[in-house]
Amino acid sequence: MKLKLGVLDQSPIGPGENAQAALRHTLELAGLADRLGYSRFWVSEHHNAAGLAGSSPEVLLAAIGAHTRRIRIGSGGVLLPHYSPYKVAENFRVLEGLYPGRCDLGIGRAPGGMPLSSIALRNGAPKVPDEKLPDSLRELASYLEIAPPLGPEHPLAGLKATPQVDTVPDIWLLGSSGYSAAVAAQMGGGFSFAHFINGYGGQGAVRDYLKHFRPGPLGAKPKASVCVFVICAETDAVAEREASAMDLRLLYHEKGEFGKPFPTPEEAAAYPYSAWDRVRIGENRNRMIVGGPDRVKRALTAFADSYGTNEVLVTCIMSDFRLRMRGYELLAEIFPQK
Fold first, then answer.
1. What is the residue-level pLDDT of the chain in tens, covering all 338 positions?
2. Residue 194's beta-bridge partner residues?
3. The pairing of beta strand 103-108 with beta strand 311-315
4. Residue from 201, 195, 275, 286 nearest 247 by CA
5. Burial of 150 by CB count in 10 Å (0-12 exposed, 13-18 middle, 19+ buried)?
6. How far is CA 300 from CA 38, 143, 217, 227, in A?
7. Backbone angles phi, psi at 41, to 5 degrees
């Protein structure tokens, strides 16, 4: 079975760069992925994150659609518990109006930032508990008219999301645990496991999703994918050098040092790692596939097989944007997409 590759881009702010450059790089990378035949290009939502420029996926997708022709574009994902389902539906109706049949509405339930940003996004309202997520999804699906309209007992019965367009986005639930997989199976949505966040348990979550899937308000057929960090370079040595910077970046986050810029490989080589640090680096490598073309081909094939899926979204963060672009080119050479 042919392995399909998609992209999750987080608009990382590389060493010596600013947010404007990171956003320009996202557009350039989207154009490359489109030309190379990648299946989809998703962008993430992070708030008050010093190293990532992608805080508004809907706005960014409008620009990405204008810079691409055929690739599916989507959110990886919109953090629905912060927002009105009605507003999310209208945002994606506009996107479908601009780029019909090309949009994915990926939905997450993580905070996407530190507590203060979550409070600000909800305008001080209480956190929406997880058990309310299915209700929000049903409301969203009704506005997109892929589910029955809100019943007469609902205070918003009769409300329509505009503009009225002929196509609707595919809906995916994103998660790093079994909860979102269970909700997706129950409600008919696609499911994508965030292996790049949690390197354990994803295969079981996807198996359970496929086993328990039932058609529902979000869709009629199961769709499963997985997202993983991939650092692919011309040689194993170059890839390992770049991965060392990612090792240190993940370590910073585990220590709560979110404000530090993305480290260079030189900074990673000079860092005074403790024994605990090296244990954590080893654990975090479960979230990554690293190497030259031969090593990555073997590892990524086995990885997809372990999930029982033919689609993998790759996210690549490297210290040099040119190396990152080349990494995606190498992946398309290893696994031809056209």
1. 789 999 999 999 999 999 999 999 999 999 999 999 999 999 999 999 889 999 999 999 999 999 999 999 999 999 999 999 999 999 999 999 999 999 999 999 876 667 788 888 888 787 777 788 999 999 999 999 999 999 889 999 999 999 999 999 999 999 999 999 999 999 999 999 999 999 999 999 999 999 999 999 999 999 999 999 999 999 999 999 999 999 999 999 999 888 888 999 999 999 999 999 999 999 999 999 999 999 999 999 999 999 999 999 999 999 999 999 999 999 999 999 98
2. 227
3. unpaired
4. 286
5. middle
6. 15, 38, 33, 11
7. -130, 110
Look up residue 33 and give its amino acid. Answer: A
Place of tokens 């040099």: 320
Q: Residue 56, exposed/middle/buried by CB under 10 A (0-12, 13-18, 19+)?
A: middle
Residue with tokens 């204008």: 66
Q: Are 292 and 234 in contact (CB under 8 A)?
A: yes
What domains are there in the chain, each with its CATH number? 4-230+306-322 (3.20.20.30)
Cα end-to-end span (Å), the chain: 14
Query: At 165, which amino acid appears?
Result: V
Report the alpha-carbon distance of residue 151 to residue 137 in Å, rounded: 15
- Residues 30 and 72: their CA atoms lie apart, in Å, by 10
Per-position DSSP letters for 309-325, written without gaps between them = -SEEEEE---SSHHHHH
User: What's the predicted TM-score (pTM) here?
Assistant: 0.96
Write out the DSSP string of 117-159.
Answer: HHHHHTTTPPPPPGGGHHHHHHHHHHHTTSSPPPPTTSTTTT-
Q: Are 249 and 259 in contact (CB under 8 A)?
A: no
